[in-house]
Amino acid sequence: MGTDYVHGYTPAETRRLTDQAGTLAELLHGGTTYPPGSRVLEAGCGVGAQTVQLVTRSPGIELTSIDISEESLAQAKARVAEHAPGATVDWRHADLYDLRDEKFDHVFVCFVLEHLADPVAALVRLRELLNPGGTITVIEGDHGSAFFHPRSPRAQAVVDCLVDLQAEAGGDALIGRRLQPLLAQAGYDDVQVGPRTVYADQNVPHLVDGFTRRTFIAMVESVRERAIAAGLRSPAEWAAGIRDLDLAAEPGGTFHYTFFKGVGRT
Where in the numbering of this chain does the Methyltransferase type domain appear (predicted)? Predict the structure, then answer.
């Protein structure tokens, strides 16, 4: 199911994912808990930022966490050992298509579909792994929902670079708005999707720092070299765009972004 991970496997990206998970824990995970003893599959665990939330919010689950990156899995194991030392996780270096003759009660997928060339095929495969009556929970962002003050064409241009590069790599940075039709097309029943919105201004400094600066702007900055190499922006144009985007995290600046969370059943 792999598609080129546009943000790269770097220490900076690991920090960004960790900051994002901590800052948005309640926003993204609120309303999601699983009964003890449930078999839960986390498809695409990355560096374990969301895994920590799963095992601490649903103690006693039988969690299987898979990822195609051995380096990310190693970081995930270390992160869970540090932040949830009592948790037991079945870690696997695997693609979801590698799972055979297994069934789960629930599947959790966060920030994975945006990187896949065929998200419907992945969702169909995950449905095949679910027991009757099981659920899938999917969380994705949508970079088209990012708007900010002060408004700046130069800042918008660097955000658009991220969207364009992800599309070139086979993914979709605007996938959040598509969750309902994707889940329905994959055959899930009772599909429910809703927005999870982040708004940050100087009155919520933890969101300005944790989300505007250390999550979103850091995500845009992660594609700087690719954007310049592809000729999308010159170094000077990129620097100007980031300077303008940074103003959204300064006093008087504001930032808005919407995630989408969907649940379907078998």
Answer: 41-136
C-alpha–C-alpha distance, residues 16 and 135, integer Å = 28
**pLDDT at residue 3 greater than cutoff 80:** no
Q: With beta carbons less than 8 A apart as the criterion, state whether 218 and 129 touch.
A: no
pLDDT at site 97 = 87
Q: Which of 90-104, 131-145, 164-178 has the lowest mean pLDDT?
A: 90-104
Distance CA 57, CA 173 (A): 28
Using a cut of 0.85, tell me whether the model's pTM lies above it.
yes
Residues facing residue 130 across a β-bridge: 104
Q: How confident is the model at residue 20 (pLDDT cuts 50, 70, 90)?
A: low
Cis amide bond preceding 205, omega within 30: no
Cβ neighbors of 188 (< 8 A, separation 6 or more) are 123, 127, 136, 264, 265, 266
Report the pLDDT value the prediction gives residue 89, as an integer from 0 to 100.
Answer: 98
